[in-house]
Amino acid sequence: MHRNPVTEILVCAFIALICMVFFIQAWSLPPGTFEPLGSGPVPLATAAIVIICCLVIIVSRARTLFRGVGLGHQFKNEFTGRSPYGPLVTLGLTVVYVTALDLNVASFGIITFVFLAILIAALENFKPKVFIPALIVAAIVSFGVEYMFTNVFVIDLPA
Questions:
Q1: Residues with Cβ < 8 Å from 105, sequence gap 6 or more?
Q2: What is the spatial distance between Cα 3 and Cα 39, in angstroms, rounded to a whole number?
Q3: What sections of 68-105 are H helices per DSSP?
Q4: Greatest CA span in the chain, whole angstroms?
Q5: Helix (H) or strand (E) holding 150
Q6: What pLDDT score does 1 carry?
Q7: Is the pTM of this model over 0.70?
Q8: I need a surface site. Which of 19, 38, 97, 153 has the fewest CB within 10 A?
Q9: Is the Cα dihedral 122, 128, 133, 137 positive or negative?
Q10: Where are the alpha helices (H) located in the chain, listed in sequence order?
């Protein structure tokens, strides 16, 4: 697999920025009335963990970038000869996924399972050896998240 440090740095910086906004917004959430911790600790901890992970990746990839063949060469490799297939499939599937959730086509778990299974397979160019692992990961994540949100956190998900 060819790694693109410029893209990894930019994507991680963007994700860290978004998480910083969530962190700032979660800081001002009021204390909970039903649960002992309130609504703030989970988004605060999640945002902090994601920001820390992004910073680790940024530092690691920056070190690789500056120890390598140079920034100009990395930019050339980054932006030439690549197909937009993966990002376009991701964008299209995400729009279909959000629309299906909004229209209540099926349960959250089923819609998320289909979305993840197709997305994982598409990002691996629909290689036959990827289908079974994609289905397993999609099932565990989609139905696991549905169970956790509905039974543990007692949050209503889109039906």
A1: 111
A2: 38
A3: 71-79, 85-102
A4: 56
A5: none
A6: 47
A7: no
A8: 153
A9: positive
A10: 5-27, 41-67, 71-79, 85-102, 108-123, 131-147
